[in-house]
Amino acid sequence: MNHDPASFAKHINRSGPWWRPIGLLLLLTSPVAAAQYEPEVLAELSHQRIYEGEAVQYQVILNHAQDAQPPKLEGFDDFQIESLGEDSLDSRQVTIINGRMTEVVRYGRAFRYALTPKRSGTLAIPAPTAEIDGRTYTGPALTLVVVPPTDQDLAHLEIASDRQHVYPLQSFTIRCTIAVKALPEPVAERNPVTVLRRLPALSIPWATDESLPAGVSSDRTWQDWIEPLRSRRGGFSINNIGSRSVISLFDDGPLGFLPEPRRTMRKDRTGRDAAYWEFDFVRKFTACQLGELAFGPVTLKGAFVTTVDAQGRAETEDIFAVAKPRVVIVRDAPAEGRPGSYVQAIGKFTLAASLVPSEAKVGDPLTLTMTLRGDGTLDAARAPDLAVHPAVAERFRVYEATEETRGGARLFTYSLRPLQPGRLTFPSIPLSYFDVDQERYVTLQTSPIPISVAESERIAEGEIAVAPGTRGGRAIEVRQDGILANIDDLAALRDQTVRPARWLAFVSLLGFVYVGIAVASRQLGRYFGDAAGRRRRAAPGRAKHRLRAACAEIHAGRQRKGAEQLGAAVTGLVADVAGQSEAGMTSREVERQLAEWDVADDLRQQIATLLEICDGARYGASAGAVQALSDSAPPLVERLIQALKGDKRWQG
């Protein structure tokens, strides 16, 4: 039999109509068919034409190769590249046109990227390359048409920051302002956005937490930030939130968000003063690491009113506007003017110190605790070096400090021993930090601490009782003012003769007991001491409990709360099994983790759809879609639990 798929397909084409269905089935189920294909690199674009400032999805497929490394993208100088992850492919498609059968087989890996053009024009996308089984394969080069923003004065976009430079843990705000030209008379007093039939589309990269720049956090989730801006009178759509492209079962289009407008005057295209309505989207962030933070670009697409005739009919013009990115630089405290007492703390703090006990003898241990409290980089703060202070080094022996962050404070704990008697004063210790509000170094001082140090007691040589020099004798000379002054009966003094055999037996017994306890502790520790293991074992029960609570909320008519709890049950289950923080487990992370665990494609897709509905419940998901979750979610979650329990890595 000829096992060549191409020859087999030709034979099917030459056969009669009755043979084609059978041949098609044999071709699709033949394990040899897929094995005969040569590896190849494919490249695809989601769009052939976009506006400057928009991103296009670029997919590189390493076809007929399962264990290939990611492709190399070289020469992409005209684009910013962001990886969107990878997927496995396994599909076959056979088409018959005019009696001729064509088979397209795809199995391998698909790598997805977002390409953001840096300029307009017809841009060349270089050919990707990949190494498969020791050979280098090259994919096709593509072209992308990037259209520049339209020259218009109907809508302007601006991105601004209240600070160009910030320090770690210093807050700042990013403001996106949209200025829309006022309507002409006689409707000039009407909001020029709420009269539009279709919502103008805004793309704001930092509107959602998943797309924030690395090293940035926000004081509120993106849902809590954007919720107060929702409007039923129209407004702007933002990142398609609420549309079918975001929540697959939504019945309506994207939601409208409309900040409180303000009226202002700007120059129009002719240079004349014209009335505009300005809308601000403002979000507060905190810098978490040094470097540059880029916010943007922001794009706006929509049809805006140009004229209104006497009958109130409006003419519109399609426009596309872009605001260039705003860069915020996160820098370290300046080296100039930095005092020697600087402890790497940035923020705003107070300082206190305590020394206990307040009375001691020469050589007794003392504990000094310095407490730095406030808002800022507490974990980065380092203990001051006390040895550099002569007043401390001359009077105290200082041991290395321990550092601990607890209860919103940084604790530096030292062990000291006084070297001389008398009424001493532990000196004031300086500690400096960088104040981000004043942008200068601030030095704090601890208060001097008085202590009383007495002379240490010494035992005179004549007060020590000694045994006579007679060998083997046990007679003891007793002095009335010696260490045995309180013993009246010599019979109370026990025989202190050392017997090595007894001690050896006792020590051996202790050794056996110790080994037994150690073995038992290790066995128990493996079971009870494995926090990650306990969390994995408890994950199914915890997920089912949360699932029952979520379904109860949905049945009670509280769809939004129930959907939130249902989404948390699924993300919590995956987070518990993966040993990750539930707070940082997004829907995208759940899908990625399930793919890493090789969970079946159909189950992953159903879980992704469930999470999409839950995520969108607070943004207008239909009640029917949420209500249906109470019936479909329990068996789906149970199926997910069984799939995870079957994974050996989870059982480990």
Can you tell me about this structure?
By secondary structure, the chain is an alpha+beta fold. The strands form 8 sheets. Strands 22, 24, 25, 26, 27, 29 and 30 form a 7-stranded mixed β-sheet that branches. Strands 10, 12, 14, 16 and 17 form a 5-stranded antiparallel β-sheet that branches. A 4-stranded antiparallel β-sheet has the order 1-3-5-4. The relative contact order is 0.07.
Task: Fill in the keyword field for this structure.
alpha+beta; single chain; seven-stranded mixed beta sheet
Q: What's the arrangement of secondary structure elements?
A:
Layout: H1 5-14, H2 20-29, H3 31-35, E1 40-45, E2 49-51, E3 56-63, E4 79-97, E5 100-117, E6 121-125, E7 129-132, E8 135-138, E9 142-147, E10 155-161, E11 165-166, E12 171-181, E13 201-203, E14 216-218, H4 222-226, E15 237-238, E16 262-267, E17 273-287, E18 291-295, E19 298-308, E20 314-323, E21 326-330, E22 342-356, E23 359-361, E24 366-376, H5 390-393, E25 396-398, E26 402-406, E27 409-418, E28 422-426, E29 430-435, E30 440-445, E31 449-454, H6 500-528, H7 531-555, H8 559-578, H9 587-596, H10 601-616, H11 623-645, H12 648-651
Parallel strand pairs: 2-9, 11-21, 13-15, 22-29, 23-31
Antiparallel strand pairs: 1-3, 3-5, 4-5, 6-9, 7-8, 10-12, 12-17, 13-19, 14-17, 16-17, 18-21, 19-20, 22-24, 24-27, 25-27, 26-27, 28-31, 29-30
